[in-house]
Amino acid sequence: MSRQRTHVAVLMGGWSAERPVSLSTGAECAVALRTAGYQVSEIDADPSLAEQLRAAKPDVVFNALHGRWGEDGCVQGLLEFMGLPYTHSGVRASAVAMHKPSSLAVFRANKIPCPEGCLTTVAAVNEKDPLPRPFVVKPPSEGSTFGVRIVRSGDNNPPIGADWQFGDDVLAECFIPGRELTVAVMDGRALGVTEIKTDDGFYDYKAKYSDGGSQHLLPAPIHADVYAQALELSERAHAALGCRGVSRADFRYDDTAGEPGNLYMLEVNTQPGMTPTSLVPELAAHCEIDFPALVRWMVEDAGCAR
Fold first, then answer.
1. What amino acid positions are annotated as catalytic residues?
2. Which CATH architecture does the domain made up of 3-87 adopt?
3. Is the separation of the CB atoms in 168 and 137 below 8 Å?
4. For 58-77, how does the pLDDT look when each residue is reduced to its tens digit (9 = 90+)?
């Protein structure tokens, strides 16, 4: 079927904490898909999603959802049930990658270095430090750094306050000093390494999505051996999780004792942000793949188990 006759439904929005990010990703991808020659319908996902998809009758679904329900295998399972080819990873890879304790277990089993940590509870963390300070607490299954906090020596307040909205479970990890790196993987091949610089060294939600909140250095100005290792570890993680299409691996790079330092994988994002200035499109452009070409490839790569 020609692109002019291929109908792509772009799923966006949803009802997770990452709804605003998804709306931005979906709108940009819809524009790029039309530029690439596709017929496009934009669908703001809600609990009537199955009915919306039956009414739209797309040939392919471009999944631009972020966060819970859209990124954790739930929507992927619905699309499999409906027999609709969709972009990004399938049910298992999406579920495992989104649940950080599960993905960290996969990394360790495949000898991919990652921070030491443990799954605990809000009450336990507030009663006694699970790790020496500084350490990081985060929800087990959220993206965009929602809920992530660094607990430092001298902090007097409980590590987790009343504003925590992410359930009773908490992932606690050793804090890794140093630099923030990210790698895009496309069709199993790493495209390059970006260093992300922020004013306070913490790549939180504000730094990710506010204008001027961060600087992206591409290619990352790091030791050549570490650069090569980041590429290799990202490809291994993509394969170990069973990812499909495009993913993004996030690292901390501890070079505080000098280079070459030590890499630690934090997570793999199976549905990374996809605006033209997002990290994955920047890395694709570094490889001379423009944004319309990137989303076109993702549609052509879409799949379904049926």
1. 18, 144, 209, 248, 250, 267, 269, 273
2. 3-Layer(aba) Sandwich (3.40)
3. no
4. 999 999 999 889 999 999 99
